[in-house]
## 1
Amino acid sequence: MEHLTFILSGFGVVMLVLAALWLTTAAVGRAFAAVEARSVAAPAAAPAAAAPVFEGVPPQHVAAISAAVAVLTGGRGRVVSVSAPPHRVAAWAHQGRSEQFASRRVRRDWARPGPTQSSSKGDR
């Protein structure tokens, strides 16, 4: 009976901790949703100058490239265009899969042969 009480109390503690974690993450999620709803409701400020639009390039990449240009040129540089070089991603994925499958190959000659018995009777 003592073991059963110990097991049930441990299970109860685990369930309480999991419930507390669930409640905490739910509260944080609601807080982020409220902040996002408040920021969307606020009117957006008009941009001072029309920034160039780089289609197909994520804005985070454009920001990183612009920051790098500003640092390297001391603020005198200007990003005129951003484009990704044409390449085939499929070739990279195919090469990675080939190497992965090759590394999982079963090599039959790795094991040393088991004990052998000598044919001569004098060795025993």
## 2
Amino acid sequence: MKKRLAAAAMAAVMAAASLTACSGGKTETQAPTKAAGTEAAGDTQAAGDTQAAASGEKVTLNLCWWGNQTRNDVTKKAVDLYMSQNPDVEIKVEFTDWSGYWDKLSAMAAGGNLPDIIQQDYSYINQYQKSGQLADLTPFIEDGTIDTSKIPDSIIESGTIDGKCYALSLGSNAPMMVYDKAILEEAGVTLPEQLTVDELYDISKTIYEKTGAKTYYDGGINMMQIVARANGSHLFDELNAGDTASSKIHFGNVEKFATAEFSISPDLLAEKNPDVVETKPIIDETTWNDFSFSNQFISISNTSGRDLGITMYPTMTGASEQPMYLKPSQFFSIAETSQHKKEAAEFINWFTNSVECNEILMAERGIPINTEVADAIKPKVDEASQVVFEYIAKVSELATPIDAPDPAGKGEVEALGKTTVEDLRYGDVTGDQAAESFVAESRKILEEAAK
């Protein structure tokens, strides 16, 4: 127990140290509340824009995103370029890591002071749209302020709710397993483009025996969703119905890996904190692998300083459906409370459609959604980015449709999943017990959030 408490304390210190601008905390556990003044935002916007134009003063926009140091550096560089080209606009930036971002954003929403431009995730847009926090981008698309002529309709649809676009994707993305090429070569192992979980278990054993490198198995919600999809289902449909089928498979796999000699210990995993790029156990070769999304590959590769490869998330032996999918890497939305929606839309248009901007970003957020921009920067990207371009092309050949956006309560369900997996890894519960309690509690959370 002392070890466990020490590990938790170390993880908390590491997470706190990773926050570079916004204050952070644990994953969001409640949907955003409707901010005071939202209903009057349209009126105040018009007045604000008119006053700014009349006075000749700069329009100030606030921009907030989550990310690691690589994303922070390139985004700030792009913002500086935009301001140099648009001297009448000042953009103030604010960022944090993923784990603290949603708590920060929820607090800002509750206080009625959301930034003008918000980085959004596919998992959360329904919650923020439902609570009236997001502006409808459709008018700006229709009048050409945001040019979508070189963007596939499916990309626009990914940020559309009830016929209105509330978020514009910033890149195409897919789940991935990252691996250390040198460790695999030393072990004499070659990975297929997509393993099964059983194959991953056997290969992990071989790698440990030959090299001593440990394995990390993803116990989080991303793997839960992959398991459900491979099982011909969708995770949140099962949780809403109280169905434990996919959860039992998932937590059974977590238990199997947790009890294996080749797996990283829960104490060391807590110390390393795989949720933060800079401390992922693959970075210092504690593990030979990691699970993430493809838009993080560049940062992981750059931070490790080694030659890394990508393969797909593992599927199940005898899967009834291909679980891989393409996902919007993240979105930009405009706050309904923004007094400068048009200027915010103009920045989003530039961020999306400018080759010059994307030559700075270099696909850090995923493959550019503007097809001409993607073609223009592909020959210029570094080796790590080329790997991502090729990976997305492979996934697109077999990907099945993405699940519907996650429902309200997703953040609390995800937090519950992390706690449940921690208990499982420490041996406090069995896989079946974990599945039963997780599904029962998740169903309550989702029912309450839907009210």
## 3
Amino acid sequence: MRITAMKFAALAACTTTLLAGCGGRPESGGAAISNAAFLNLPVTTDAAVGSADSATWALYRDPTTVDPAQAFDYPENTVVSTLCDALLRQQPDGSLAPGLASEYRFTTPTTLVLKLRAGVKFWDGQPLTPADVAFSLRRNMDAKTGGFYATVLNRVTAVTTEGADTVTLTLSSPDYWLPGELSSMAGIVIQEKYALDKGQRYGTPDGGAMCTGPYKLGEWTAGRTLKAVANPDYWDTGMRPLTATIDFRGVSSAATLTTGLSTGEISGAYITDTSTFRELQQVANTSMHVGQSGETEFFIPADLTGVLGDLRVRQALSLAFDRKSFADAVYGGNAVAPRMSTNPGTWGYAKDTFAAAWNAATEPATDLARAKQLIRDAGAEGKTLVIGTSTGLATVNTAANAWLEAANSIGLKASLHNVSPQNYINFFTDPKAREGVDGFSTTTYGDYADPAALIASYTEPEGVQNYSGYDNPDLHAALTKAREQADPVQRAAATIEADRIVMSDLPWIPMVHPALFLITNGKLTGAPSSFAYMQAPWLAKLGQGK
């Protein structure tokens, strides 16, 4: 459950308002995706039928680590998921399946037993053991690791091993979110001996890694290509890599990405910034796949002691924001307004229950008259609103200008606080960077397909994305009920109630739910067109199509 603030850097700064347009603005043709179509977006591409010698996969920047404990954004998650296995595996449709654990079951509401798969080996040929699993989980739970996943494992009080294949997790209270977490970075297993030997160098170009995944870590020089080499002895014969080597390359320029795809130098990418969506659609010999995403774009109140501390101001801003124009401009119409606070791509279970709630909910509409009245009722006319942005990040800056326009149109006195693309991430990691800034935007996602995973990350008092200190006891109670409910339908009902409170209280203001965008060149196919690529080794399916 982690933010992504950084996007592909635009060639030129986008300083105009949303309605005036932005460089690389995609054409929507005036046709927005329908609600029914959005709920039924595909989750896979056509299966590959042949192998490939190599592929170069573009990331929006170079990965900084292959340590799952430190992975928190698209580049790291994509690479780590290609190299390493989690205890459970996310399927393209968001459901969970066995991974390194061939079986998992709650023997009591506070006891989760994992039966490890036989015959699994690390890249160096050493067998996977319960000790490796226990080490990996305890490492993620240990605050000294400095990782991102201690809070999601905070109900685990003990990790014990038994025999050659059993690991038992003892919980302080029931936690039916835990299997989802064990399918994400928090549940990835690394080799204990290797990690202890490398110490703090583990996951760096100097220290390397040791996992069980379908690809091994090959040559990696910081700031240059990271090579993943097929593991011919991979335990899952149905996921044996079809492409011999995958070179992961940071591509920070949208123009470089477009050129690389057109020449064949770049084989594919999951698009995390759509500022050049139109140009990418026109690249010859490529296929653009629009699929099911787990992302939501939000405006984040950073300080609830200022003007955004008044719910009426947050409600007014939401009413003033032109979601349709934003979806057209940034996503070519391939995004929908948030009837609920999280993307339908997060429905990994009880899909019919979530879909019924979604279809019954009202789509937010722009209402300037009502927004202006709320501002007057709040006594906020003329009050300042400082919005964080970076003119070097096209999508971020387009969003900031849209919020600037919305705020000023209803009587606030809004301004932009501009930082460099490199420093925009500091809004999420450094409280000092947020000083004097009322809000900023991001696209974000949960670690697995459950709306509660994302909601909890920014509304729970200790959530990793709760930057404002927001605390609502009713919302906390709904999330706790969801977390402790074994029955999927009842868990979904509690999650829907939590979502209803979010949409009413607006601790974060949902902007739009975008689709996922995958582009490949030539005849490459097989990669999922869903968010599963972020947490499971599905790039092993990448190969030649018909």
